[in-house]
Amino acid sequence: MAKTFSIEDGNTSVSTIFGSRKRKYIDIDLTFTSKSVSKDIFKKEDAAAVKQAVKNLCMTNLNEKPFLPDFGANIQGMLFELADADTEEEIEDQVIASINKYEPRARVLNVLANSLPDINSIDVKITFQVINTQEEVSVSIVLARLR
Asked: Which residues, in sequence order, are bridge partners of residue 45?
C-alpha cells in the first residue's frame, strides 16, 4: 500500500515517505482457454501479461488498430524489404519506439533483429524489464513470408 505524506500531514522528518506503488499487472489470456471447473478464462499476471502485450504490439501492423493508426511495430511490413543491416536496424528502432510509446509497463533493454533471407523470415529478440517487478523478460518473435 502506498503512503505519501505532505507538509499538511505533520512532521515529515519523523515519518517515512514512500513514493512508489506496488501494482499488479493483469491481462486476459488471449488463447481463451477455459478453466475446467468454473469455465472462466485464464488470466496472465505481471511479467506474463507484459510479455503478451509486447508480443502483440510487435506483431501489429500500422493502421491495423482502429483510431490508432500508428499503433504497432510494423515488423510484418518489413518482411518484403531487402535483407540487410539497414533493415535490421530499422526494425530494431521501430520496436523500441513502439514499446516506449504504447507499453508503459516495460523498459526496453535490448532488441536484436536478424534477417534470415534463405528462409524468408525475420527473427526479433526483445529483452525488457517489467517496471513493477524489475524482472528481465525475453520475447522471441519469428515472422515468415508465405511465399
From this structure: 26
pTM over 0.70: yes
Neighbours of 58 (CB within 10 A): 24
Residues 6+ apart with CB under 8 A from 11: none
List of domains in the chain = 25-144 (3.10.450.40)
How far from each other are the two terminal CA atoms of the chain, in whole angstroms? 54
17-36, pLDDT tens digit by residue? Answer: 444 556 788 888 887 777 77
Cα–Cα distance measured from residue 45 to residue 29, given in angstroms and rounded to the nearest whole number: 9
Whole-angstrom Cα distance, residue 1 to residue 19? 10
Q: In what order do the strands lie in the sheet with 136-144?
A: 106-116, 121-130, 136-144
Give per-residue pLDDT as tens, 128-144.
999 888 889 999 999 88
Q: Which residue from 29, 97, 32 is spatially nearest to 58, judged by alpha carbons?
A: 97
Those residues with Cβ within 8 angstroms of residue 105's Cβ, 6 or more apart along the chain or in another chain: 25, 49, 50, 53, 130, 131, 132
Mean pLDDT of 115-120: 84
Separation of alpha carbons 61 and 68, rounded Å: 11
